[in-house]
Amino acid sequence: MNFIMNAWRGKTQLSLVFWGYYLGFQIAFVIFFVTVVPLLPKPSSGLAATVTTLTFSLFVLSYIVWIYVSIWRSAGSSKPVYKIIARIFVIMAVIGTAGRMAATGIESYSKYSKLSSEPKSHANMAQSIPAGWEQGELTENYMRSMNKDMCVIKTALSFDKCSTKQCITTLAGIYGDCVTYAKGTITEFCKNYHSKHLANYCIGTNGNNLKCMFFKIGTKTFCQRK
Question: What phi and psi values does residue 183 have, to the nearest 5 degrees?
Answer without folding.
Answer: -65, 155
